[in-house]
Amino acid sequence: MLSGAGALALATRSTSLFAEKTVKPLRILILGGTGFTGPYQVRYALSRGHKVTTFNRGKTHPGELPAEVEQLVGDRNGKLDALKNRQWDVVIDNPTTLPAWVRDAAQILKGNVDRYVFISTISVYGEIRTGVDETAATEKYQGADPYKETIEAMKASGFKTYGPLKALSEREAEKWFPGKALIIRPGLIVGPRDETDRFTYWPMRIDRAGEVLAPGNPNDPVQFVDARDLAEWTIRMVENRETGIYNATGPAKPLGVGGMLDGIKEAEKSNAKFTWVSEDFLTQQKVEAWSDMPVWAGKESGIARTNIGRALSKGLTFRPLAETARDTLAWFKSLPQDRQSKLRAGLTPEREAEVLSNWKKQKAVSS
Fold first, then answer.
1. CA–CA separation, 42 vs 52, rounded Å?
2. Which of 12-21, 92-101, 182-191, 350-359 bottoms out in mean pLDDT, i.e. has the lowest?
């Protein structure tokens, strides 16, 4: 059985639970499978007739996955015995940042798994230039020994090693599964179950209505992908035996932050009023893109202009923004009240009001 919030998140868009075509049943091993995108992969795969096994510590959302899923318990840090002497058609590696995790799993799975799918990130490109595609150079690791890196050290670096370590993990997958590796590089993943609140801030803030601080220029580009669209496309890529590297974000056509905010407002039938505040003023006020103003990239707008032509050519599709916004809002409102009161991204109401007040004062002085 699912918890209330989990059931709501996973029940949305039930039409996706029916196979669009007859596909050959596969034995799919999912490393992780209980976090953000994993449960969507699991349920979509089951709906299309595949047999699913998960491997994780059994600590995240226990009891949430369907009964027909085989759940193996272990730890990527050296406790991999449950993977030994087993065979699958494909493995999907969701949670890995450390190249040692890929190496250790691959040593056991090589010869027992036909293909390796590694979920990476567009952060491998570092400071992204406009229109970056899959042929662009990835960041170089500058540390002493990437195989001795830990998650704790990566976080302590302020995530500066995140992109380089992901890039090395990609290469590790390709090394152990030459010609049989599929590398997917998502951008910002959004929707129900997102614990970072990097998109959720906007549906929640616009639902609260009133005067909303909007960042920069309405035409500033934004990119993101609904976790369900990413998960379902990943399974279809697996079914089609695809290999290679793909950027995976959206939407299909360029979208400005103004279009995103207007779309959320319309979906929620909110009477919110947007006050656009310049990037320079936000910088003066120490309001940061991405964290304080989620999704919006500010001066680093190249990250929101990633080329997704390859993924589109392989059938990456996107549900309407309105659906993502409404489902995200409904999911978040189903969470405990103390969680709802502490968004993990965006401005607090008090800070937003302060910045808006300062903005109006400056406008008054300059007029």
1. 7
2. 12-21
